[in-house]
Amino acid sequence: MASVASPVIFKEFCPLYYLLNAIPAKIQKGFRSIVVYLTALDTNGDYIAVGSSIGMLYLYCRHLNQMKKYNFEGRCESITFVKLLSCFDDLVAVGTASGRVAVFQLVSSLPGRNKQLRRFDVAGIHKSSITALAWSPNGMKLFSGDDKGKIVYSALDLDQGICNSSLVLEEPSSIVQLDYNQKVLLVSTLQRTLLFYTEEKSVNQVGTQPRK
C-alpha cells in the first residue's frame, strides 16, 4: 500500500513591518541626525534579536509582541554579532566592533525563572571586532571570536553573578564561525577549519589544504 503523502503547508514570506516599525530609522545626537543601520540578527522561538550601528540591541518578544532595548554604557559603537540561547534562563550575548562582549540574562514571568535583568561583561581580552559567538547548551560557557583570530572562553555562573574569561586559542586569520557541543569547539577561520578539544586543549585540523 502506498504511503500517504504528508500535507503541504504554504507559507508567505513578507517584511516584518511590526518589527521594523519599532526600530527608529534615525536618532538625534546633539545637532546631528544619525541613520540607524541594522548590523546583526539572531532568532529563536521566543525572541528576535537585532543589533544596530548605534550600539542598541533591539529584542522583540514573539509571545508578548513587545520590543525592548538594551545598550552598552559609554561610547556608541556598532554591534557586530548577537547570539540567543533559551535554557533555564533566556540569554543573549552581544559583541561590538571594538571587541566588547556582554551577556544579558533576561527577565522571565515564569515561576522560578530570573526576575531581574542582569548583565555580565567579558573582560577586555578582545581588542578588535567580534565576528562569532557560540553558547554551550546549558548557558554556562560562551565562546567569542574576533577578526584578529582570538578566541575567548567565558565561564558564567548565573547564580553567583560571575563571569571569568580567558584566551584559549589564537589563529593567524579572522574567525568566521564558532559552534560548540560535547566539549568540542568547531572553529572556522578565513584560512582553515579545526576542532578544538576544550578538555585536552588540543587542535585537530579539518582537511589539509588551506583555504584560498
UniProtKB/TrEMBL annotation:
SUPFAM superfamilies: WD40 repeat-like. The gene is Tecpr2. It holds the Pfam family WD40. InterPro entries: WD40/YVTN_repeat-like_dom_sf, WD40_repeat_dom_sf, WD40_rpt. This is TCPR2 protein. One of its GO terms (biological process) is protein exit from endoplasmic reticulum. GO terms for cellular component: cytoplasm. It comes from Oriolus oriolus.
